[in-house]
């Protein structure tokens, strides 16, 4: 076969694998018409056919395909493009060598089959430090490979065993207890020296072979990698190199929802750059709808569903661009809020809850003996294998009687169509034995290790989640009607907002937390802490400059597996960019407050606390301000005046103001009020789901285990002097337009002023807070004093005359929560304009 002078060489298989010099050589060759040199392929075929016919022994398809494969050279990975330029004589010589090797290898396998038992094969592998697991065929293949070419060294990444598979040697071990290893090579390390046979063996064939083996082993000649596999390995090494000539992506037509305006142009540029088409709205030609960020554009998503268009996560687009081809939608699909089977209903009895799928919620309880509670939820997420599974195991004892049942439920996280349940009746002692057996089978740990908090994650096994059901003390009480409440009507409405279970459910769904098997708010503090630790590891990996791409990818998979095993998600994925990472940090911060709310008031099916009971649990006095009071009017002016000019997506309307007195907060604040001075009344916004935790525990600083990234000026409590700057963090939408905001008295003291982000644990010595200087600020001449000496910056936004600042608006940060006294809680309606 000759190269056509008109051929587009960049479309040749393996073109992307060539060095620039090789690409130039092939390009010049194509321009000359290829008249003097033949491509190796046809001649190689003929030579192979002759050799095969001379061999005289026919084997199965695998043998024939191996013997007919093309070989460019014995050592080193060979690209497809380079192989095409090998002279025909050299190619034939290597073909013959591989044919000879292949015949010798298969003859050796035949001899082993005739003369060596499975036990002897296993003993021989163990004597040489090789993997001795698997079937007889696997053992024979490994022995033959070692006898001909030498014992294989261990994987350089995880020290696992290598096995020959699919034309190369692959590791089947684990990088860590969380992830499989994906290392592969065509040039495995071999252990020097002769292949050993068991010392005690009486096998005459093995003894004879051992005496005849040569000291120096040949190098195994491997078949040429296919263009597809070469391209896949190249993909990881050039993750950020996107080809505009990709044929497969020219059919990609996508619409995107959830994007802020300033990001639309960037995504359109990326899609156009790979030959795809960006659609502003879903239409009949759209391939799929990509959801970026939260699932808040329900209209566009409903439209996509009506038109039967797949709805996928942002990862789909990222992976298509990186792999330079259209990928299947299945692994990236997003489930609509409400599409899944809603959250599980739980009824706490004692210290735990019977799963509703058992059918025994009303008539049984979880078996407890001493400190042992026979109930566990196991989870396993492995992105390298596509695993995202849960396993629930319980012993249920009848309320009236001593009969016990072992209940099991398993499946894929967030997918009720995959999985099953099993309920078995047995005696208490048998149930405990079966429970412990199953726990060990699934986790690789004895049940006692979990109880003693010494459990260790095992490779390829489940890991228990620490679920805190709280304690139901079963104190009889008379359910009070809301009409019996002694609280003022505005406060009753506030309490209904704070303790509305649907608000928390929607937040969990937005974060794609598994709601079908994860009781709302019951993920314990320790699990959230472990999630933060995994994110810190991801943060450190993202910071590494010039890493080995394949190693970095493996480590990111490993850390992402840890995160999604501890924080079960409907759509686990590799957390590989800064924005995704930051969104997971915010998610865990919100989960912390949901966990606090759950511990305080519970979201259980049998929770019958009244509004007044829940209010008392906050340990915070909350009093509505009269709308005609001086303070209400001042706060309304502060809100109306300080809306920033760039925050145009919504306007704000003040509905209610509540004065706050959190238990113990004034005492902690008093020394700083008197000592530091420079006190200001400043804004702070947060999600509605965070406010039960805020009112109960105050504003908090991110925990030590939380990653540092995402905090411009370090871990502290952040405030603003413009209301809309803080209102952004309420995350309201048209469907849920009412949010809550705080006005806090903040003792700033001596302020450390900065014009750009700078991470710090605390400000320099002599400074008590940090201020990010914005390009705009409230008009100072309109400031007023409140309660004597507290500054209220209620002026309209004007240029600050701060030169070369990277911040648009002022930010204030304190690193000690005792410098903050929450003064007012505002109920604010957002009028969204689109």
UniProtKB/TrEMBL annotation:
One function term, GO molecular function aspect: DNA binding
Domain BRCT: 244-334
InterPro entries: ARTD/PARP (IPR050800), BRCT_dom (IPR001357), BRCT_dom_sf (IPR036420), PADR1_C_dom_sf (IPR038650), PARP1-like_PADR1_N (IPR049296), PARP1-like_PADR1_Zn_ribbon (IPR012982), Poly(ADP-ribose)pol_cat_dom (IPR012317), Poly(ADP-ribose)pol_reg_dom (IPR004102)
Top-level taxonomic group: Eukaryota
Positions of the WGR domain: 363-462
EC number(s) from the headed UniProt entry: 2.4.2.-
Locations listed in the record: Nucleus
Sorted UniProt keywords: ADP-ribosylation, DNA-binding, Glycosyltransferase, Metal-binding, NAD, Nucleotidyltransferase, Nucleus, Repeat, Transferase, Zinc, Zinc-finger
Disordered, as annotated region: 14-74, 222-246
SMART domains cross-referenced by the UniProt entry: BRCT (SM00292), PADR1 (SM01335), WGR (SM00773)
EC class name: transferase
GO biological process: DNA damage response; protein poly-ADP-ribosylation
Residues annotated as domain PARP catalytic: 609-834
Domain named SAP: residues: 113-147
Ranges annotated as biased composition (Basic and acidic residues): 29-46, 59-69
Reaction catalysis annotation: NAD(+) + (ADP-D-ribosyl)n-acceptor = nicotinamide + (ADP-D-ribosyl)n+1-acceptor + H(+); L-aspartyl-[protein] + NAD(+) = 4-O-(ADP-D-ribosyl)-L-aspartyl-[protein] + nicotinamide; L-glutamyl-[protein] + NAD(+) = 5-O-(ADP-D-ribosyl)-L-glutamyl-[protein] + nicotinamide
Compositionally skewed regions (Polar residues) per UniProt: 14-26
Known function: Involved in the base excision repair (BER) pathway, by catalyzing the poly(ADP-ribosyl)ation of a limited number of acceptor proteins involved in chromatin architecture and in DNA metabolism. This modification follows DNA damages and appears as an obligatory step in a detection/signaling pathway leading to the reparation of DNA strand breaks.
Stated family: Belongs to the ARTD/PARP family.
UniProt protein name: Poly [ADP-ribose] polymerase
Source lineage: Eukaryota, Viridiplantae, Streptophyta, Embryophyta, Tracheophyta
């Amino acid at each position: 076969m000759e190269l056509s002078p008109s051929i587009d060489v960049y479309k040749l298989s393996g073109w992307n694998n060539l060095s620039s010099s090789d690409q130039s050589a092939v390009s010049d060759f194509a321009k000359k018409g290829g008249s003097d040199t033949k491509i190796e392929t046809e001649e190689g075929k003929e030579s192979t056919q002759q050799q095969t016919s001379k061999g005289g022994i026919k084997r199965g398809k695998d043998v024939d395909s191996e013997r007919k494969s093309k070989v460019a050279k014995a050592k080193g990975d060979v690209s497809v493009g380079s192989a095409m330029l090998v002279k025909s004589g050299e190619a034939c010589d290597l073909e013959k060598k591989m044919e000879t090797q292949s015949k010798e290898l298969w003859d050796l396998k035949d001899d082993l089959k005739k003369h060596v038992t499975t036990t002897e094969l296993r003993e021989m592998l163990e004597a040489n430090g090789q993997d001795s697991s698997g079937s007889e065929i696997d053992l024979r293949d490994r022995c033959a490979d070692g006898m001909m070419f030498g014992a294989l060294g261990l994987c350089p990444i995880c020290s696992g065993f290598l096995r020959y598979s699919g034309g190369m040697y692959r590791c089947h071990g684990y990088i860590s207890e969380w992830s499989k290893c994906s290392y592969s090579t065509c040039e495995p390390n071999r252990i020097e020296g002769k292949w050993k046979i068991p010392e005690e063996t009486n096998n005459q064939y093995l003894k004879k072979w051992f005496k005849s083996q040569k000291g120096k082993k040949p190098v195994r000649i491997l078949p040429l990698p296919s263009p597809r596999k070469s391209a896949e390995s190249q993909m990881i090494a050039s993750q950020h190199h996107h080809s505009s000539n990709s044929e497969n992506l020219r059919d990609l037509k996508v619409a995107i929802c959830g994007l802020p305006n300033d990001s639309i142009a960037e995504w359109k540029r990326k899609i156009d750059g790979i030959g795809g088409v960006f659609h502003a709205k879903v239409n009949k030609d759209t391939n799929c709808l990509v959801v970026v960020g939260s699932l808040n554009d329900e209209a566009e998503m409903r439209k996509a569903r009506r038109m039967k268009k797949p709805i996928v996560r942002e990862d789909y687009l990222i992976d298509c661009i990186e792999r330079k081809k259209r990928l299947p939608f299945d692994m990236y699909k997003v489930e609509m809020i409400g599409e899944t089977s809603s959250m599980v209903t739980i009824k706490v009895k004692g210290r735990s809850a019977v799963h509703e799928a058992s059918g025994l919620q009303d008539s049984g309880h979880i078996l407890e003996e001493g400190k042992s509670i026979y109930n566990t939820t196991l989870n396993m997420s492995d992105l390298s294998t596509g695993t995202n599974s849960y396993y629930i195991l319980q012993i249920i004892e009848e309320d009236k009687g001593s009969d016990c049942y072992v209940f099991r439920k398993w499946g894929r996280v967030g997918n009720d169509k995959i999985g099953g349940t099993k309920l078995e009746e047995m005696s208490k002692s048998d149930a405990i034995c079966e429970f412990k057996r199953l726990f060990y089978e699934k986790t690789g740990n004895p049940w006692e290790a979990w109880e003693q908090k010494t459990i260790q994650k095992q490779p390829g096994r489940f890991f228990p989640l620490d679920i805190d059901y709280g304690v139901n003390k079963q104190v009889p009480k008379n359910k009070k009607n809301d009409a019996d409440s002694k609280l003022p009507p505005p406060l009753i409405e506030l309490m209904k907002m704070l303790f509305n279970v649907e608000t928390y459910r929607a937040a969990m769904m937005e974060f794609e937390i598994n709601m079908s098997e994860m009781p709302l708010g019951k993920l314990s503090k320790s699990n959230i802490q472990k999630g933060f630790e995994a994110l810190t590891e991801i943060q450190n990996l993202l910071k590494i400059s010039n890493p080995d791409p394949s190693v970095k990818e493996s480590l990111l998979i490993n850390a992402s597996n840890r995160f999604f095993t501890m924080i079960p998600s409907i759509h686990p994925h590799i957390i590989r960019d800064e924005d995704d990472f930051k969104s997971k940090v915010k998610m865990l911060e919100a989960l912390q407050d949901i966990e606090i709310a759950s511990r305080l008031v519970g979201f259980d099916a049998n929770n019958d606390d009244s509004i007044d009971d829940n209010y008392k649990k906050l340990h915070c006095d909350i009093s509505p301000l009269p709308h005609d009071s001086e303070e209400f009017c001042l706060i309304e002016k502060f809100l109306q005046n300080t809306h920033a000019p760039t925050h145009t997506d919504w306007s704000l309307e003040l509905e209610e103001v509540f004065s706050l007195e959190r238990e113990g907060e004034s005492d902690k604040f008093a020394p700083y009020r008197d000592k530091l001075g420079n006190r200001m009344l400043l804004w702070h916004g947060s999600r509605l789901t965070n406010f039960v935790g805020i009112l109960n525990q105050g504003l908090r600083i991110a925990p030590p285990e939380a990653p540092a990234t995402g905090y411009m000026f370090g871990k502290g409590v952040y405030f603003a002097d413009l209301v809309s700057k803080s209102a952004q963090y309420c995350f309201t939408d048209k469907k849920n337009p009412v949010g809550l905001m705080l006005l806090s008295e903040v003792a700033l003291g001596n302020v450390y002023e900065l014009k750009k982000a700078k991470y710090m644990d605390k400000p320099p010595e002599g400074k008590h807070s940090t201020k990010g200087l914005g390009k705009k600020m409230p008009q100072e001449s309109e400031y007023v004093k409140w309660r004597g000496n507290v500054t209220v910056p209620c002026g309209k936004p004007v240029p600050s005359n701060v030169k070369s600042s990277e911040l648009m608006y002022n930010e204030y940060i304190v690193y000690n929560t005792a410098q903050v006294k929450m003064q007012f809680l505002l109920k604010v309606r957002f009028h969204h304009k689109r």
